[in-house]
Amino acid sequence: MDNFKPDLANSCPLTPLTFLERAAIVYGECTSIIFDNNVSYTWSQTYTRCLNLASSISSLGIKRGDVVSAIAPNIPAMYELQFAVPMSGAVLNNINTRLDARTISVILQHSESKLVFVDFYLKSLVLEAISGLPKGLSTTPMLILISPESDDAADRNSGSSGPIGGFDDTYEGLVNKGRNASIDFQWVRPNNEWDPMTLNYTSGTTSSPKGVVHSHRSLYIIAFDSLTNWSVPKQPVYLWTVPMFHTNGWSYSWGMAAVGGTNICLRRFDAEVIFKLIGLHNVTHMCGAPIVLNMLANSPLAKPLKYPVHFMTSGAPPPATVILRTESLGFVVSHGYGLTEVAGVVVSCAWKPEWNSLPASDQAKLKARQGVRTLGLMEVNVVEPETGLGVKRDGSTMGEIVLKGGSVMLGYLKNPKATSKCMINGWFYTGDVGVMHPDGYLEIKDRSKDIIISGGENVSSMEVESVLYMNPAVNEAAVVARPDDYWGETPCAFVSLKEKGLTGRPTERDIIEFCRARLPHYTVPKTVVFMEELPKTTTGKIEKLSLRNIASKLGFKDGCS
What we know:
The chain is α/β, with parallel strands linked by helices. It folds into 3 domains: 38-181, 3-Layer(aba) Sandwich (Rossmann fold); 269-448, ANL, N-terminal domain (Rossmann fold), CATH 3.40.50.12780; 451-553, ANL, C-terminal domain (GMP Synthetase, Chain A, domain 3, 2-Layer Sandwich), CATH 3.30.300. It is built from 18 helices and 27 strands. The strands form 6 sheets. It has a 9-stranded mixed beta sheet, sandwiched between helices. It has a 5-stranded parallel beta sheet with strand order 4-3-5-6-7. Strands 17, 18, 20, 21 and 22 form a 5-stranded antiparallel beta sheet that branches. Helix 6 (149-158) links the parallel strand 6 and strand 7 (169-170). The longest helix has 17 residues, at 43-59. Residues 463-541 form the AMP-binding enzyme C-terminal domain. Belongs to the ATP-dependent AMP-binding enzyme family. This is OLC1v1035634C1. Keywords: Ligase, Phenylpropanoid metabolism.
């Protein structure tokens, strides 16, 4: 039984692009995309449009392995680009729409992007970024303008194309140009499943952004894995509340094609619009960071849903109180853990039937845990960074979370030093701190840089934040270290309060006493700073770097008091 060798019939390169090809056959006349009142496509139309666009991209001289960038919100063109760019053989680089011109310029230069698709409302930003590129570059990227949605219909009907205001062509112009050419065009399949398919830059809030490279293989695995893990049925109705520029929408951009889902596109997050779209289109699934859950739960327009909507959240652990509030509206919250470097959710809180009999508050606490590895991940562990040995599975001994599996990145573009620093002895070191419970379930405690060491004791900022969110007056909360002349560091809480429904505004002492009744004494915040709104990173996370800078400027606190 040891004489068998791979054959072309059984070793075809894996790629999630085949999902769209199949969707055009199986779900051809079913709705693929809905946007506003004037845009709607079927899966057959989406496949054809992506094929046309891929043909036009190739005709521009874009070669296999070249980088093509896209900077746009969750509009139909952005969804199509997740397929069309790699179908041309190019590597897709989604750029965060919240970045400034300088950072965009750095990304375009570092990636050596050859072509950039730009949303109309971001054209000034990108033109400024282009002007900031070094003068010595041999070539600057071509620019393609994605017209406002109100103009799309006219563009599609007229077939208009050509240069416009500093741009080389329009999006619909390229789609129209590809109509005839694509008759003989065969989309470019990877030579090897390890060929790069996407390039996503980390947020870079503490350093220069790093370019995460993923292969066709890793994205095929994570797309399948994400569907299986969440038990996504055929033909769901998916509302795009997680940005597609964020890890390609956690890989659900390709996953929705696999199951023939309907993509409800949304230009910007707005709680009122979201509740309206849920009812209008019978939305079944959504994704988003915990802050999205918080905004939905605290919206003045929040009201119980007519039917359940499944919501996958990932990132910082959502406080149990936020889960309770959201689920009381009818959302079914699932919690997962992932990073750009693993392309999506790779650890999730797999629900056990016996937990259904527990009180709602206990269920919410369990859902706040990250859980166990998904089927596509081979191993997850919590280890001592110095030795690489696993920590005790007691739910309290902290260590660094490490992962291994098929969806782990190829590495950081042009940065072997950073790659080797996190890829050690066959494991990907995440930089996240967690514990392993006796039942084998993982729970994140913090980013390694966010752990507060007070009097030699480790304080999890996330644990303190979870208690702060239990206060009915608190809208947002974040905890960082403040220098202390006695303890070294003490927890400093930054809090924004709800705008409505308060009988009185709590004081710093009120917040501290609230925490003292629910936390060990050494973990209680010694300082509380009230803000109208907490600063956010470009991906919508609370920006702790800024808060740490503020806390350090508060000076040393007399910890003996």
